[in-house]
Amino acid sequence: MSESTGAEEKRQLGKSSIEPHSNASSTGWHDEEKAQDDTRQNSIAQDSNNTNDLQHIESQSLAGSQLPPPPDGGLHAWLKVFGGFLVYINIWGFTLAYGTFQSYYTFTLLPDQSPSSISWIGTVQGWLLIVVGVLSGPLFDLGYFRSMLYIGNFLIVFGIMMLSLCRTYWQVFLAQGICMGLGAGLLYIPSLALVGIWFERRRAMALGIVMSGIAVGGVIYIIMFDQLIHKAGFPWTIRAIGFVSLGCALLSFPALLSGSGMLARPRKRRALFDNSAVKDKLFLLFTLCTFCNFLGYIVPYFYIPTFAQQKLGSSQSVSLYMLIGALAGSFFGRIGSGLLAHYLGSIVTWALCSFTSGILALCWISIDTQASFIAFSVFWGFLSAALVTLPSAAFANICPDMSRLGTRLGMSWSVSSIATLIGSPIAGALLRTKPNGETDFLGPQLWSGICLLVASGCLCVLWVVTKKKLNKGWLI
Known about the structure:
Elements lengths: L1 H16 L4 H19 L7 H14 L13 H22 L1 H12 L5 H17 L1 H9 L3 H19 L5 H30 L4 H55 L23 H17 L1 H12 L5 H29 L1 H18 L6 H15 L1 H13 L6 H25 L2 E2 L5 E2 L1 H29 L6
Antiparallel strand pairs: 1-2
Main location: membrane
Subcellular location: Membrane
Keywords: Membrane, Transmembrane, Transmembrane helix
């Protein structure tokens, strides 16, 4: 009789552990982390009953790789936001600052290479950043996020230091394109998934803060490059940037690893490819939206300095500060879009920003003065920021099983990475030289604007299908 009663109590306890109520949401992660520590230390007999109960909660909540309800706040949750912010300073900040290198390589380091060839360095870096998500998503689900953090940060810092020694195109391609791209890819999905697991109601806001690190990193690296390149030369300028990157990496480790011991436990092994995703209309529509977005999104960031120098006659320093203006605008745009998505929904806000960014890219065609181009750069950064910030928040809302979030997000981003790979080289190939020797940027301008307008149309379809399938209101 007593044994059956005890079994019934355990079943009730296990059932309550996976129901999303307030106490479980706020304390479940802390209790489970404590339970693991107590088990490893062979806690004393008087606490053994509590430890066994907590272990039973873990086994129930992790059955089928299910995770406890997100705490949606607390010290460990916000430390994940801070750690992700530092990671994004390195991985996306350096990628969006590539316009600085595009200009320097074109006019100084690699003048014998075409703009399209040089842009392949930055796009391969961005492509690897995303496509490695195919591997890093399942690896995260299997609990290898610690190894991914260590190896990814090492490859980024190592790649930057090797870049300081480069003199030829293939050397730059290997160091900046391949090595840094692989390292960034190992960090990309884990930094997003950790925040997605710890937040639900405030997920869009938390991801907005994380991704604002893109702007902060870009601004820091561009200013360092501009201030040091003429004083210290290319090698030591890059090394100085490498030391800043190393500092961010070292600070991110304790922030991202704190309170995440439960995620390192062996869980149900997942396939690299989720077959059910290809039959999910929402997944397919989401992937199409991000693909079209990435075809046009990064083009202005790559060509702002080149356009300013070749079309408007700006100095190298002024052209770089125009790119800084775009990244500074994106800092406020990422936070602002996250706050707006908290009230309007991620998909609605994403669609609005994609549409306005497409219109702004077409307005770029008429710009012929430095003042108007500075205004364009700032507005571009502000409006287009949501095109990177909001997709992750939107995907978490349409993913049917949070335990497969890493795998599915990796699958989607891997397809979208092809757009990142080919978008800017296509834009570079569309550059034309007029009979008077002036470069015509009409092709890249039309390419960017049209791709973003197509993406906004796809997002409208995604919103309609999501509203019907999930039976939600219009704020999605």
